Amino acid sequence: MTKSAPFDRVGMERVCGFVNGKGGVLKTTLTANVGGLLAASGWRVLLIDMDPQGNLGLDLGYRHGPNDDDGKNLAQSLMFESPLVPLKGVRENLDVVPGGEQLDQAAAGLVAMGSKNGDQAKLALAKAISKLATDYDAIFIDCPPGNEPLQVAALGAAAFVIVPTKTDKGGREGLLGVAKRLDTVLDVNPDLDLLGVVVTATTSSATNVQRVAREAIAEAFGTHDVLFNGTVRYAEATAQAAREKGVLVHELEQQVKDGPKWYEVLNGKAEGVANQPRSAGNVAEDLHQITQELVSRLLKAEERNAS
Ligand SMILES: Nc1ncnc2c1ncn2[C@@H]1O[C@H](COP(=O)(O)OP(=O)(O)OP(=O)(O)O)[C@@H](O)[C@H]1O
Ligand SMILES: [Mg+2]
After folding, report:
1. Does 9 fall in a domain?
2. N or C: which end of the chain has fewer CB within 10 A?
3. C-alpha dihedral sign at 196, 137, 59, 277
4. Which pTM value belongs to this model?
């Protein structure tokens, strides 16, 4: 059998997948917030939710709204090569292809497709993205924690992966799982690269735990370079409020700043507002730092690839 020509990835140099087979490590939080911060800074950003849970829509506030198709467009695009039609202007400069339950069907479709033609299934998302990639400065894919066919399709499309991981014992396992998945797609996506590992905290008082986890990761990779310097601190109140309200953390921070001050509430000059956590500013700062680092890592990789 003759080998097919390599897939043309022009314009797809900044497709990044947020990947970890482990659940709850902040894949969605980072996709939404880093994407949102980049969009706010003027980049044209597309987010693609490959998760049947559709949680990206919670963080951005469109989930179960009139424009949420529960992943139908994305599913059809994966199965039948119909064009991706993103939701436009979810924020300024930010478009989104929603995920949701419809993707379960697409996953089954990809398995069937893969049994006939493995490459076609691995490249299903890559093909869909390639048609609109030049409209954007960056494209982020939020990957599901399980669901191998969807994860593989996401990795088949990505130029870079970012692996969020927690400081708990399962972190290493998660990283090994990612390495295995990367292996699966290297035949169709040989230049797929690791942009870095983002360590996210499991508790609020975990400086030592953080240090140990970071050392273990650096040792596993044989270098500290893989580690993002920035981390996301543990702040449940902020995370909950952001997701409940469907706002990004920097937007929540702004709401807190614009909201009534405690002394205004106390002296009756203003009414208290529920769910205005004070940690929002700190978490927003963490996410800013990670965004800056992601940009500098992307630019460095581009320089390396150009030389
Ligand atoms: N800084 C934080 N501190 C504590 N909890 C957080 C923080 N940021 C987000 N969370 C919460 O942690 C949970 C998991 O986050 P998220 O959904 O981003 O992870 P995920 O890796 O995408 O999960 P899944 O594997 O289910 O897709 C969510 O309930 C989220 O609100
Ligand atoms: Mg998620």
Report:
1. no
2. N
3. positive
4. 0.94
Domains contained in the chain, number: 1
Of all ligands present, the nearest one to the C-alpha of 59 is 1
Tell me the longest C-alpha to C-alpha distance in the chain: 80
Question: Whose alpha carbon is nearest atom 5 of ligand 1?
Answer: 236
What atom in ligand 1 is closest to the CA of residue 51? 27
Ligand nearest to the CA of 21: 1
Q: Distance (Å, rounded) from C-alpha 246 to C-alpha 230?
A: 24
* CB of 55 closer than 6 angstroms to any ligand 1 atom: yes
We report the CATH number of the domain holding residue 82 as 3.40.50.300
Say yes or no to pLDDT of 45 above 80. yes
Q: Which ligand is nearest to the CA of 238?
A: 1
Candidate from 26, 30, 148 with most ligand 1 atoms within 8 A of CB, to mutate: 26
DSSP 6: P
CB of 243 closer than 6 angstroms to any ligand 1 atom: yes
Note whether residue 8 is domain-resident: no
Residue pLDDT, tens place only, 120-159: 999 999 999 999 999 999 999 999 998 999 999 999 999 9
How far is the C-alpha of 83 from the C-alpha of 86, rounded, in Å? 10
Using a 10 angstrom Cβ sphere, with 0-12 exposed, 13-18 middle and 19 or more buried, the burial of residue 186 is exposed
State the burial class of residue 275 (Cβ atoms within 10 Å of its Cβ: 0-12, 13-18, 19+): middle
Residue 6 placed within a domain: no
Instruction: Report yes or no: 71 and 101 within 8 Å, Cβ to Cβ.
Output: yes
Q: What is the pLDDT of residue 175?
A: 82
| Least trusted range by pLDDT, from 12-21, 114-123, 277-286 | 277-286
- Cβ 286 under 6 angstroms from ligand 1: no
| Residue 256 confidence (pLDDT) | 83
Domain assignment of residue 294, given as a range: 15-306
Q: In Å, how far from its chain's centre is CA 16?
A: 8
On whether residue 283 sits in a domain, the answer given is yes
